[in-house]
Amino acid sequence: MSTNLFDQFDSVSYDNWVEKIKQDLKGKPLSVLVSRPEPDLEIKAYHHSANIPKSNSDHLIRNRKNNDWLIRQIYSASTSNKKLLDDLNNGINNIGINWTNQNDFDELSKNVLFEHIQSDVQFKSLNDALAAQVPENSIVTFDPIALHAHKGKAGIKMGDFVEFYKNYKNQNSVWVSGYIYGDAGGSTTQELAFTIAHLNEYLHALTEEGFSVKEILPKITIELSVNENYLVNIAKFRVIQNLCKLLLEGYDYKADDTEIRIYAKTASRYLALNDNHNNPLRQTTQAMSAVIGGCHSLTITNRTTGNEKIDNRFDRLARNIQLILKEESYLDKVIDPAAGSYFLEHLSAELVTKSWDLFLATENEGGLMTGLASNLIQDQIESNRSALIRSLNNGDKTFLGVNKHPNGTDEWIKPKAAVNKINDFKALEAFYLENYLHEKGNDE
After folding, report:
1. pLDDT per 10-residue tile (average), the chain, 444 residues
2. From CA 248, how far away is CA 22, in angstroms rounded?
3. What share of the chain is helix, strand, coil (3-state, %, to 5)?
4. Rounded to an integer, what distance in angstroms lies between the CA atom of residue 369 and that of residue 384?
């Protein structure tokens, strides 16, 4: 006698299964079960084992021993050494430091035991990076493409990046700020595609100088944004490794079980000044999606209010959200918890295909830097951003506390008008959806 209960039942074919769905819909078309979480993604709510795509994603994440991640926070020179040490004692185990000068760095990091935590030091100029003295185990970051894209400034010198890499050849020094594309309002497909194109620019520059992919690979860190689309985020962090594998194959390198470090940072677009107590609720679901997807480090960002007491409280909440996900939800214990979901396997496959196609299209137009200089990249991101703005003002998207159930007891804070900076090309700046909410009575 079979011990498998399911052996006692006849299997249902895909056609019969779909026919039953049609009956249950009572005349409504199957299209009512199809949705668009993002303008360039179409997903359906019904899946069957017979039509699951051949795993486009033999996920590298499954080679991990656990799903643990680092709790990261970013610090500037204005942060006190006491606050940084307090944060470390209360759960932070990964710090990012924005470099200003050696004195500020030494003062901020006094008594920090770098050998027991992960850290990264972010430089904005080559000269600062070459003169700095930083811990040997810190990740060092100098991302000229992102720095120029953020300012809309031409003149990206890949030679500067190569010199930086040579100076820090014994440290992890290839940092790809892929989050800038999502933070500016790009779709998940766009962010993944442009991030791979961003990495490709650095790989090309380094391999042209004679460095091998095998040597470069362990030094790569990619930082992606986490937006409001919960299930899409899970798929996004599952497939980034696969897109990297496809890119490496173009350099005749077959990645084995080596994982590229993937950092996650919550996006700015759904951070609000009004009724901002809803921000931690949004951040919690965003954090969960990045963790379930398999990020190695997570930064929960906050929108500065200018009130130190309030800002410190939100920093504490950002830290505690992650501690709860670990200590009470045990999300660090299960490897790839999303594996086996037909829905997510379909979504992952669609993301890989569409992102890779967009990457190839970008390369055919001359690559990422050419696309930035011609505003090709920015225009594509702007199209998705415009769709988000329309959905906000049409009420199609719920932004709790902003376009839905605003707190009537608080005085409405009018966000600063959004200004699109154009220098040599359109700048890729953080996008706050709240800034585009139409005022009451304004029907434009």
Report:
1. 72 88 92 91 86 56 77 95 97 97 97 97 97 97 97 93 97 98 97 98 98 96 97 95 94 83 96 92 96 96 86 94 95 86 90 96 98 97 96 90 86 76 90 82 35
2. 44
3. 50, 10, 40
4. 20
Distance CA 424, CA 31 (A): 44
Helix (H, G, I), strand (E, B) or coil at 308: helix
From residue 9, give the alpha-carbon distance in Å to each of 5, 6, 83, 182. 8, 6, 61, 47
Structure-token pair, residue 348 = 């992952």
Helix (H, G, I), strand (E, B) or coil at 35: strand
Query: To the nearest 10°, the Cα dihedral for 142, 148, 154, 157?
Result: 10
What residues contact residue 220 under an 8 Å CB cut-off, 6+ apart? Answer: 172, 174, 176, 199, 244, 260, 261
Task: Give just the sign of the alpha carbon dihedral 388, 394, 398, 404.
Answer: positive
pLDDT digits (tens, 9 = 90+) for 238-263: 999 999 999 999 999 987 767 899 99
Tokens standing for residue 178: 């892929």
User: Residue type at 98?
Assistant: N
What are the two backbone dihedrals, phi and then psi, of residue 262, each rounded to the nearest 5 degrees? -115, 115
Mean pLDDT score across all residues of the chain: 91
Instruction: Please check whether residue 425 is in contact with residue 145, taking contact to mean a CB–CB distance below 8 angstroms.
Output: no
- CA 428 to chain CA centroid, nearest Å: 15
Find how far residue 351's CA is from the centre of its chain.
14
* Residue that is written with structure tokens 């993301």 in the block: 351
What sign has the CA pseudo-torsion 386, 390, 393, 398?
Answer: negative
CA distances from 207 to 120, 141, 165, 172 (A): 24, 19, 12, 16
pLDDT digits (tens, 9 = 90+) for 347-395: 999 999 999 999 999 999 999 999 999 999 999 999 999 999 999 999 8
In the chain, the N- to C-terminal Cα span, in Å, equals: 70
Do residues 94 and 117 touch, judged by C-beta distance below 8 A? yes
Domains in the chain (CATH in brackets) are 60-347 (3.20.20.240)
Q: Please state, as a whole number, how many other Cβ atoms lie within 10 Å of the Cβ of residue 384.
A: 23
Query: Can you say whether the dihedral through the CA atoms of 12, 17, 20, 24 is positive or negative?
Result: positive
